[in-house]
Amino acid sequence: MGRNTIVNLTRLGTVKKSQKMKRVNVSKVGPNTEWAKRVLESQALISVKEVFNLKPKLIKDFIKSLRQFVKKKERGLLYAEGPAQERDSDSSEESEEESGDEDDDLPPLSCLTTYVKKEPIPLFLDPGAAYSIISTELLKSLNINTGELITSIKIKPVSGKVVEIRKRVELPIEFDDGIIIGIPFIVIKECAVPILLGLDTCMRLKSKINYEEETYAINLENKKHTYQLYSKDNVIR
């Protein structure tokens, strides 16, 4: 057979058109939360690990069930309203022990050495507080008059009732490097510390707290100023 030869092959019958397969909708089976619940509450002499060794396919189902369980618990915490219910004595003692351990891990309350009218005033830092606060007693000792807020502010201390604030004051706070900044404070009769710097001022000054290096930095007119942080015990003696 030479080159470029065309060969016509005989037909071996007609080719049937392929039939379209019917699409079957398979509903996704959700995780068997009831099974997971039984495993968690089971008192049988078999561990969950042994169950998974016997039926590895149940691992994914179990993980999905746990995720749903966690989501339900989170929703309950987020949307819960009203005061917390009293717990029994055993659970309250455990929670107190746990909170005590957590407090040990927290950094100590930090403060700066600042001055008002050349008077040394330890300025406590609390970015968790929405406003910068000063006590009435400290203002009296400094002989500084207060002004009225345009709109009163309601705050709730960690322990106590809601307090309505009507007084304000702007203090010329002098830092260690001689820079003086006018900082607004709200005035409250009773306060855990005489004066504290809250989130409002920290954001305005673009503050950064470095607990590892024990420094507090602010940004003023595109210039960074860094100050040493001190513990409450080291400043107040």
Automatic annotation (TrEMBL):
Q: Name one Pfam family in it.
A: gag-asp_proteas
Q: What is the protein name given in its UniProt record? A: Aspartic peptidase DDI1-type domain-containing protein
Species of the source: Smittium culicis
Q: Where is the composition biased (Acidic residues)?
A: 91-106
* Taxonomic superkingdom: Eukaryota
Return the InterPro entries for the record.
Peptidase_aspartic_dom_sf (IPR021109)
What ranges does the record give for the region Disordered, renumbered to this chain? 80-109
